[in-house]
Design a protein that fits this description.
Helices cover about 20% and strands about 30% of the residues. The protein is built from 2 helices and 9 strands. The strands form 3 sheets. A 3-stranded parallel sheet has the order 1-4-7, with no helix packed on it. It has a 3-stranded parallel sheet with strand order 2-5-8, with no helix packed on it.
Length: about 100
């Protein structure tokens, strides 16, 4: 389901299974559970809070755990996701500078 050019004010907005294009979110609680694909394109967020719940929360816990892993594992993981590790901000200040 695609939602275009809508302004949400003071609502709880669930992202799962929806695509948002050109929307504006003001004072909203934005929730992502990781249960269905979502996309966000050209949206504006003002004074919103973001919540990861369920599977999305577990995934975030896993990713946070990577900060204690060796750089070699992290680089391999990021490349598997087709991300360029060299262009990402280091995940942990404990990691040595390149």
């Amino acid at each position: 389901m695609t939602i275009s050019e809508v302004t949400f004010t003071g609502e709880t907005v669930e992202l799962d299974g929806r695509s948002f294009e050109g929307c504006r979110f003001v004072g909203c609680r934005i929730v992502y559970r990781g249960e269905a694909e979502t996309s966000l394109t050209r949206n504006a967020f003002e004074d919103c809070t973001f919540a990861l719940e369920g599977a999305a929360s577990m995934t975030m816990g896993f990713l946070k755990g990577l900060t204690g892993s060796s750089d070699g594992f992290l680089v391999t993981f990021l490349r598997a996701l087709e991300l360029e590790p060299e262009r990402l901000v280091r995940l942990s200040s404990a990691d040595p500078a390149p």
